[in-house]
């Protein structure tokens, strides 16, 4: 039984903890078992994230690509649209892209009076987004994220996710700060895991246009 899932940016200290008493296994982004030395060499925060799966007597460390490209089948795409339309009360046209900005519960934000300067929250991001593609933009956050005060700009309509539908569909692990996903009208989608900026969203749009 898995006790916990841990997301790491720097692994060296963590990998040394209990190394003598607990068995450790290491896997690359393709699921291939590798050595600890190979794992540390491949770990690169710009292109992948390292996660730790902590079992009773085993620690499993895996590398996950920050970019995930995949496809929703017709049924899954239809269910996604229904879910978003029901919660946001706005219709998604058949030729529109869907853009999701998702705030995770890791780490829990502190209560702040000042608005965050994170570029993804700024109004000019929205202006540039709609110039690049016809889309509907959705802002969603994990229900365990307590204080979202510093992210609550007037132009953002935040939805607290209470059923983990989006999290379960696109985000297998609790990556830090947030993730973004762009879904094309044909069901192809691009997800970027972990803290990001507008350029990651725009990059996803350009990638999907070429598929």
Task: Supply database-style keywords.
globular, five-stranded mixed β-sheet, 211 residues, single chain, alpha/beta
* DSSP helical segment count: 6
Largest sheet: 6 strands, mixed
Mean pLDDT across residues: 91
Q: Uncertain regions: pLDDT < 50 for 5+ in a row? A: 8-13
Distance between the termini: 39 Å
Counting helices, strands and paired strands, the structural category is alpha/beta
Radius of gyration: 18 Å
Q: Residue share in helices?
A: 25-40%
Could you tell me the number of beta strands?
Answer: 11
Order of helices and strands: EHEEHEEEHEHEEHEEH
Proportion of β residues?
Answer: 25-35%
Overall 3D form: globular
Biggest β-sheet: strands ordered side by side in the sheet: 6-11-10-7-8-9
Short synopsis of the structure:
With 211 residues, this protein is α/β, with parallel strands linked by helices.
Set out the fold topology.
Blueprint: E1 4-8, H1 12-16, E2 23-27, E3 33-34, H2 36-42, E4 48-54, E5 58-65, E6 67-71, H3 74-88, E7 97-103, H4 123-132, E8 135-142, E9 158-161, H5 165-170, E10 178-183, E11 188-193, H6 198-210
Parallel strand pairs: 2-5, 7-8, 8-9
Antiparallel strand pairs: 1-4, 2-3, 4-5, 6-11, 7-10, 10-11
How would you characterize the overall build of this protein?
The termini are far apart. This protein has helices at residues 12-16, 36-42, 74-88, 123-132, 165-170, 198-210, and strands spanning 4-8, 23-27, 33-34, 48-54, 58-65, 67-71, 97-103, 135-142, 158-161, 178-183, 188-193. With 211 residues, it is of the alpha/beta class. The strands form two sheets. Strands 6-11-10-7-8-9 form a six-stranded mixed sheet, with helices on both faces. A five-stranded mixed sheet has the order 1-4-5-2-3. Helices cover 27% and strands 30% of the residues.
